Amino acid sequence: MEAELKKTLIPITLGAVAGLISFLVTQDLRQRDAFGIIILVLLIYVQKFIFPKLGIELKAKDWVGLSFLTLSSWYILWTFLLNL
Predict the structure, then answer these.
(1) Do 77 and 21 contact (CB within 8 A), yes or no?
(2) CB crowding 38-73: b at 16 or more within 10 Å, else e
(3) Could you tell me which residues come within 8 angstroms of residue 7 by beta carbon, excluding any fewer than 6 positions away?
(4) Are the C-beta atoms of residues 74 and 16 closer than 8 Å to each other?
(5) Is 14 within 8 Å of 43 (Cβ atoms)?
(6) pTM exceeds 0.85, yes or no
(7) Cβ contact 70:8 at 8 Å
(8) Are 61 and 5 in contact (CB under 8 A)?
(9) For the chain, how long is the longest CA-to-CA vector?
(10) Distances from the Cα of 84 to the Cαs of 1, 78, 79, in angstroms?
Protein backbone atom coordinates (compact mmCIF):
# COMPACT_ATOMS: atom_id res chain seq x y z
CA MET A 1 0.00 0.00 0.00
CA GLU A 2 2.79 2.41 0.87
CA ALA A 3 4.62 1.69 -2.39
CA GLU A 4 1.45 2.39 -4.39
CA LEU A 5 1.01 5.70 -2.59
CA LYS A 6 4.60 6.66 -3.43
CA LYS A 7 4.02 5.64 -7.06
CA THR A 8 1.17 8.13 -7.14
CA LEU A 9 2.50 11.06 -5.13
CA ILE A 10 6.02 11.26 -6.58
CA PRO A 11 4.91 11.73 -10.23
CA ILE A 12 2.26 14.26 -9.22
CA THR A 13 4.78 16.22 -7.16
CA LEU A 14 7.46 16.11 -9.85
CA GLY A 15 4.89 17.15 -12.45
CA ALA A 16 3.93 20.15 -10.33
CA VAL A 17 7.61 21.04 -9.90
CA ALA A 18 8.09 20.73 -13.67
CA GLY A 19 5.08 23.00 -14.23
CA LEU A 20 6.46 25.62 -11.87
CA ILE A 21 9.94 25.47 -13.42
CA SER A 22 8.44 25.61 -16.93
CA PHE A 23 6.48 28.71 -15.97
CA LEU A 24 9.49 30.42 -14.41
CA VAL A 25 11.69 29.66 -17.42
CA THR A 26 9.25 30.53 -20.20
CA GLN A 27 7.00 33.18 -18.59
CA ASP A 28 5.72 35.44 -21.39
CA LEU A 29 8.02 34.27 -24.16
CA ARG A 30 6.09 31.89 -26.42
CA GLN A 31 9.29 30.95 -28.27
CA ARG A 32 10.50 29.02 -25.23
CA ASP A 33 7.47 26.72 -24.87
CA ALA A 34 9.49 23.78 -26.19
CA PHE A 35 11.93 24.26 -23.32
CA GLY A 36 9.05 23.74 -20.88
CA ILE A 37 8.36 20.37 -22.48
CA ILE A 38 12.05 19.45 -22.20
CA ILE A 39 11.83 20.16 -18.46
CA LEU A 40 8.86 17.78 -18.23
CA VAL A 41 10.73 15.00 -20.05
CA LEU A 42 13.77 15.54 -17.84
CA LEU A 43 11.74 15.15 -14.64
CA ILE A 44 10.03 12.03 -16.00
CA TYR A 45 13.53 10.63 -16.61
CA VAL A 46 14.64 11.58 -13.08
CA GLN A 47 11.96 9.24 -11.72
CA LYS A 48 13.92 6.33 -13.17
CA PHE A 49 16.54 6.98 -10.49
CA ILE A 50 14.25 8.00 -7.63
CA PHE A 51 12.09 4.88 -7.44
CA PRO A 52 14.92 2.32 -7.12
CA LYS A 53 16.45 4.39 -4.30
CA LEU A 54 13.12 4.10 -2.48
CA GLY A 55 13.09 0.34 -3.02
CA ILE A 56 10.19 0.41 -5.47
CA GLU A 57 10.46 -1.92 -8.44
CA LEU A 58 8.74 -0.66 -11.57
CA LYS A 59 7.53 -2.65 -14.54
CA ALA A 60 7.19 -1.41 -18.11
CA LYS A 61 3.45 -0.85 -17.76
CA ASP A 62 4.02 1.32 -14.67
CA TRP A 63 5.93 3.88 -16.72
CA VAL A 64 2.90 4.70 -18.85
CA GLY A 65 0.85 5.56 -15.78
CA LEU A 66 3.66 7.44 -14.08
CA SER A 67 4.36 9.46 -17.20
CA PHE A 68 0.67 10.29 -17.58
CA LEU A 69 0.40 11.46 -13.96
CA THR A 70 3.48 13.64 -14.38
CA LEU A 71 2.23 15.03 -17.69
CA SER A 72 -1.21 15.79 -16.27
CA SER A 73 0.00 17.62 -13.18
CA TRP A 74 2.61 19.51 -15.23
CA TYR A 75 0.01 20.63 -17.77
CA ILE A 76 -2.55 21.64 -15.15
CA LEU A 77 -0.13 23.71 -13.08
CA TRP A 78 1.64 25.31 -16.04
CA THR A 79 -1.67 26.27 -17.66
CA PHE A 80 -2.97 27.64 -14.37
CA LEU A 81 0.14 29.76 -13.84
CA LEU A 82 0.11 31.08 -17.41
CA ASN A 83 -3.47 32.28 -16.92
CA LEU A 84 -2.81 34.27 -13.75
Answers:
(1) no
(2) ebbeebbeebeeebeeeeeeeeeeeeeebbebbbeb
(3) 51, 56, 58, 62, 65, 66
(4) yes
(5) yes
(6) yes
(7) no
(8) no
(9) 43
(10) 37, 10, 9
- pLDDT per residue as tens, the chain (84 positions): 788 899 999 999 999 999 999 999 887 777 677 888 999 999 999 999 999 999 888 888 889 999 999 999 999 999 999 888
Q: Report the alpha-carbon angle 42-46-51, nearest 5.
A: 155
Report CA Rg, the chain: 13
Domain housing 16: 2-82
Axis-axis angle for helices 2-26, 33-53 (nearest 10): 150
